[in-house]
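note to self: the first set is below, dont mix up w the second
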Amino acid sequence: MLVAQLFDKPFYQVEKQLSRLKKLGVTHVLVSPPQKSHASHRWWGRYQPVDFTRVEGPLGNGDDLYRLCGAARKLGMSVVADTVIHHLSNESRWVRIRGNRILSAQYPRFCQNDLRGLHQPGRGRGLPILDTQSPWVRSELRNYLRMLYDIGVRGFRFDSAKHIDPHLFPYLLEGLPPLFNFGELVYQEPDHFPQEYWQSMKAYDFPLAHSIHRAFSWNGDLGSLLHPKALWGPHSVAFVNHHDLTRNRRGFSPFRVANLEDRKIAYAYLLSCGHGVPLVYGPDIRYREVKAAMKFHSQVLGWSQTPVAASKTHLVFRRGDSALVGLNKSGRPQEITAEIEPGCYRDLATGWESATNHGRLHWVLPARSATLLLKQY
């Protein structure tokens, strides 16, 4: 599996990109929250819901989303919807807030009795939190997910899942077939994740992102990524970048690879190491190195991984018997010798080719680069 996040893109624009993404190995496309939301056309407006019974707003309407899901299905792909079920919009037309108190609220389907205080994600006015213990609220949220499923959505990202009772999700998903679901659970340590979530969803692999961040930091150890601290197993949705890391750089600084050249190498690691379900942030797909790593990922899926060489500045490992990955974050070239199946090899990142008849390949790993060698014949 490979997920591409087409953040804040209208549904018709996402549909136009499906064929290109398919060729890069993408199986799932994550779109921004589709419900009727805050009147602002800026990205954060989609994260302030108003009415869960309507697909409406800058991204498109229900018909647009239906066409997108149908087009994806024809290509063997799936659409995953970002969902915001923790809180509502703080627009003054729907709610009156003074300090830390909700004075009054009247949304199309909710009133003040359906709320339980304010969520403060940062500066500014708080966001009214839905009372998910309320039978009415629970039924509205459940109907929303079912509506999206009927439209053609085949997975959900749960925004702010860390702040939602994990026992709510089995109720919301009851009666639906197995889908690709994952949540935003921001923890640096793998053992901090509450086990109750795993019966309903996977999660962003923030521990792995933190390991990658540390490996690419000043004096960090790239070799540590042979055995990183991570969620591992079936729970991980692995990433180098996504919308929260670009829109809230300070808040997510422990997980960001700030330097672009380092980030390209980090993508090569993420997409070649076979860890979890990788997610690629849409704007990053324009880089040649990221495209190459996406293609490499689809070619070596399921192949074993064997370490070859590691230091603080470089990392080399083999996938199966006929693919080789080399990463170099330093400013110096690195000479590499590796045992490999005889044949002709091509670097998907640069197009460079080399052949070996004796099962040993020697090459120079350029400074600040990634090499993704795959046997051609």
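second set (the one i keep forgetting abt)
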Amino acid sequence: MSSIRKIFDLKAGVIGTGFIGPVHIEALRRIGVQVTAICGSGQAREVATQWGIPHVFTGYDFAKLVAAPDVDVVHITSPNRHHHRQALAALAAGKHVVCEKPLAMTTTQTAEIVAAAKASGKVFAVNYNVRFYPAVLQMRAMAQSGALGEIIHVNGSYMQDWLHKDTDYNWRVLASESGELRAVGDIGTHWLDTVSFILGSPVVELIADLSIFHRTRKRPVGEVQTFSNTAPEKTENCTVDTEDFASVLLTFANGARGNLSVSQVAAGRKNSIRIEVYGSKKSAWWCSEDPEMLHFGNRDGANETTIRATAAFGSGATGFMDYPPGHVEGFPDTFKMNFRNIYSAIVKGTEERLFASVSDGHQEVALCEAILRSHKSRSWTSL
């Protein structure tokens, strides 16, 4: 109980007030962490009022937020191009950091953050929250214990449709704002990080194909929120320089092969992550749009479908589930469990660290750069 009380004593500041900022705020409230400061664009005051946050720094004045004495942990949920300098500023101010992916725009920037984080002695996590679905934790336990046998190959996808129309627009479609990779960088990296986490093995070689379907989009005159379904009244043509969909073939360090399809123009798929792990003994597969269910495949016997938190599901997610079976734990719960693990590491030091580290964040950006090199050269590329 004493460690839980210490978690309650920690205070957080959140940079960014778009879609993902309030997701962080809600999850922090659920583990008992008070959010004392917020920093963002014009809607910062509105978000602060909604959540009862006492200190508001408008105009993205992150320097004041990281310097605030009642902020112990800085959560960075701003657009990608800001992550580098905001992370360095938070570390320089002596704060622990939780940063949205990507860690930064280039491996030059991420390497600088890695060095600063290690020198600081502070906990630095990158928010690859998909790791904390109970089914993912169970697949990881089975893959690494040998219950699936030797891993032969992994198949999967991450599909969304929120950018399906040419009238769908977000700052992520511009390389200058989000980086040269969009579909892969924004959502594909979640799949890639999760599968490496499950296997306990990084990607060492790949070949990639990227494609743009909407080469011109209708950009709203004014700000638009992520996942917004509101049609803008006034638009202007905008040339798109990031991919709408992609395919990647992968080789992992343990010899397993993989293939990933990723798309943000897949009609009907709202937020669908699918992971299929095929081993020499049996297989396991799961989809985020049906998060309670984990499936096992057998060569000679009947296939199995199990429900989270039952005996047949397995014990790999023990400690990362709060509700009984049938009481669905999904997307918001992954943030809660991730943050609980991060904040426990801050107060305990020796807590098992299942969250993505600053080095993991660096690795994912290196992976993205390799995917870009492969696409441009039309060849297999090593990391």
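remember for set 2: The mean pLDDT is 94.
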